[in-house]
Design a protein that fits this description.
single chain, mainly alpha, three-stranded mixed beta sheet, two-stranded antiparallel ribbon, 17 helices, 5 strands, 61% helix
């Protein structure tokens, strides 16, 4: 029977053996290495996870903390295996959900914007990843058969913006007088060529527009996530919530129309548009990026309020960076999103807040909405939650992601 210490180390080694996961957690073992998108690799990981689950269930804990960690490790692996083995219309979900663009870009982007090492070291790892990208995309194309149309379209849109990221990295390398500049430029050209071929092949694949996983699989996922309700009960909860929300909106519409002396028959969409225009964030000298300054000012104001009122403790080693969403991420970030601190990186726990700024979408950024977004994404929202969790001594509790809890927190 394995000890708690031994099985915890085995679990850690399993998690960090995956290049993508390791990179996303801020570990330094695979900085210059792309993951393996093949089905064979996924199946190998699934079998390893099953072996680990069996071992975890044989461990006897001696404390509450150990019991909790064992349960979280088990659920982490069960959640991974659920989606690895999930079937959509007779094929693995993995075959329906293209991920080549994110597979080659996520680590490169992290090395570019969220790495405190020297430019030379970061560019070396970026170059290494770019050199692996063409073969990676060939493997990804072999995996994907009849993708879900919506997922396919997102992949295509993200892929079209990727050359802009590479061009920006090349400009940065020139400014830094990178020692392997010519090799980097060639690697980018080859990667762009491979990317174009991958996107063309993906565009020509037959797609599916609808899918379902079945009631049994829904119940299985709910059990893994410890949600003690049936799909029917959750549906009823949603209906009840939407009903109460609509009643609240109706009441507020009447009050706000009276407050701003609008016609009584003003509809909710019309009121929404009026408020967006009235409280629009100011654009300085026609520069959309000036909206970022307003966000930063609101963050400072919120943090001062929290500190002055002594509402709760905030970790000293935390920070939040606000930046404009890069083009290739705009398809999946229509307004704004927060990337939590890298759980395993030492030092200050830094979150990245991306804001999508477009002339036709400025209604998303108003003096009413910005403070609420920063409270939700920053403090006391997601950033505080993850910056706190990332300092926990338990490995599994630092890395465990439970979206149900995350949104509940905020």
């Amino acid at each position: 029977m394995p000890s708690f210490t031994h099985i915890s180390e085995q679990f850690k080694q399993y998690v960090l053996a995956d290049a993508d996961t390791s990179m996303g957690l801020g570990h330094d073992a695979h900085l210059g290495q792309l993951g393996d998108p093949s089905l064979a690799h996924m199946q190998k990981c699934t079998e390893q996870a099953k072996t680990l689950i069996n071992a975890l269930q044989s461990v006897k804990s001696s404390s509450f903390d150990e019991t909790l960690d064992l349960d979280l490790m088990t659920r982490y692996l069960q959640h991974e295996n659920f989606f690895s083995e999930l079937q959509l219309q007779g094929s693995a979900q993995r075959c329906r959900q293209p991920n080549g663009v994110d597979g080659i870009s996520a680590g490169i982007f992290q090395l570019f914007v969220n790495d405190e090492r020297s430019s030379e070291l970061r560019l070396n790892d970026i170059l290494s990843r770019l050199l692996q990208a063409p073969n990676y995309l060939i493997k990804e194309n072999d995996v994907i058969s009849e993708p879900i149309e919506r997922w396919r379209d997102i992949e295509l849109e993200q892929g079209e913006g990727l050359p802009d990221l590479f061009a920006t990295i090349l400009d940065w390398a020139k400014q830094e007088q990178y020692s392997q500049l010519e090799r980097l430029q060639t690697a980018i050209e080859q990667c762009n060529l491979a990317l174009s071929g991958y996107l063309t092949q993906l565009k020509n694949k037959k797609t599916l527009t609808h899918f379902d996983i079945g009631l049994d699989k829904v119940n299985e996922l709910l059990a893994i996530r410890q949600i003690p309700y049936t799909p029917a009960q959750l549906t009823e909860m949603a209906r009840d919530f939407m009903g109460r929300t609509q009643n609240l909106l109706n009441e507020l519409t009447i009050k706000l129309c009276d407050k701003y002396q609008l016609p009584k028959n003003t509809s909710e969409p019309e009121l929404h548009e009026y408020l967006n225009e009235k409280f629009a964030a100011k654009i300085e000298n026609g520069d959309l990026s000036s909206v970022l300054d307003y966000y930063s000012e609101q963050v400072a104001s919120i943090n001062t309020f929290v500190t002055d009122k002594k509402l709760f403790s905030v970790p000293a080693q935390q920070n939040m960076k606000i930046m404009q969403t890069p083009g290739f991420l705009e398809p999946v970030i229509p307004a704004g999103a927060m990337w939590p601190p890298l759980a395993l990186r030492e030092g200050k726990k830094t979150s990245l807040v991306y804001l999508t700024l477009k002339a036709d979408q400025l209604a998303e950024h108003t003096a009413l909405g910005i403070p609420v977004m920063m409270i939700h994404e920053g403090i006391p929202g997601h950033h505080l939650q993850f910056a706190t969790a990332a300092q926990h001594p338990s490995f599994i509790r630092r890395i465990f992601s439970a979206n149900e809890h995350a949104e509940g927190w905020t």
